[in-house]
Amino acid sequence: MENPRSFTFNQFDVVSEVSGHHYLSSSNGSDRFTDFRGAVYKKIMKEWRILQKNLPESIFVRVSETRIDLLRAAIIGATGTPYHDGLFFFDIAFPPDYPSQPPKVHYRSFRYPLNPNLYCSGHVCLSLLNTWRGETCERWNPSQSTVLQVLLSIQSLVLCENPYFNEPTVRRFKSPLDTESLKYDRDAFVLTCKSAIQLIRNPPEGFEPLVTAHFRERANAILAACEAYANGRARVGFYRDVGSPGRQGKNKISKKFLVSMEWVYPEMVEKFKGIGAPVESAAEKLRLGAEAMKKKKEIARRQREGVWGKLVRKMKGILGMKKKKKKKKKKKKKKMIID
C-alpha cells in the first residue's frame, strides 16, 4: 500500500516547454508534429488523453505545447522495493513515424548504476521499447501499446522488488534472500538516496514543486529507514514508515553498506533541512546500535591495519590450516602404530 500524499501536484499538465530535456536539441524531424489533421498528431493527442485520465498517484507527466513530441515523467519508487520514496525522472520523445516505432526514453541517472535495466548513460532496457529482446507479446505493438504502458512497466518491472534478478545472467529460481540479491538491494537503496540528494540540488525544470514537496513529506520516513537498515532491524526495502519497521528480525549488517549510510545520512539531513522538512528531531549523524558499533570498530581497525594487516591475517589463516593438517597426520600415524 502506497503512502497517501498531503501535497498537491497535478498528475498531468501541459507546459510551454520542457527545458533541459534530453531530446530537446534533436530536430523533431517532421511537420507531422504540427499538422493537427495528421495521424501522428492525432495519435499523440490520444496519448495525452490516456495519460490525463489514467495516471496512478505515483506517476507525474508534463507535456510541451510547443514540442508535442516531448514529455517528461516522474515515478515515485514503490514500497517493498529498495527504491521506496525515491523519485525517478524520464525524458521521452515520440519518433516522427509514431506509433510505428516505440517512443525513445532517457533516464536521468546522475551516473548511478542503481538498476540492471537503467544504465548510467540513461539508456532504458525494456522489451516494450524494443531495447531488449523479449517475447512478441512483450514488445512494442503499434496498434495497442501506449506511453502509459511504458511508464507502468518501468515502475512495476524495472523499479521492482529484487531488481538483481533483472540481470539476464542471473538464474531466476534463486531465493530473494540470496546473498547477491540482498547486496544489490543495499547498493540500490544507497544510490536511490544519493539520487535524492542530487535531485534536491538540481530538480528538473517544471518539477521543482514536486521534488521539494515529496522529500519534505517523506524525509523522516527515509531517515528512519536508513537507521533501521544500517542497524539490521529491517530488510532493505521493507521499512514501512516512522515507527513501523516492516519485516523485522535479524538482518546482516554489511560493512560496505554501513560506511555508505554513514556518509549519505548526514548529507540527506542537511538537504532535507534546506527544503524545510520537519527533521529537527533527527540526529545529525546515523545512530548505531551495539552490533552496528561493533561492526564499525572492526572496519576502523582493518582500515588502520591496511594492506599489511590483510597479509598478516592471510598468513595466519594459511599457517593455521597447515597446523591442522599436521595434527591430522600425527593422529593418523598414532592410529597406525596402535593397530
From TrEMBL:
Residues 39-197 form the UBC core domain. Keywords: Transferase, Ubl conjugation pathway. GO terms for molecular function: ubiquitin conjugating enzyme activity. It comes from the Eukaryota. InterPro entries: UBC (IPR000608), UBQ-conjugating_enzyme/RWD (IPR016135). Pfam families: UQ_con. This is Putative ubiquitin-conjugating enzyme E2 38.
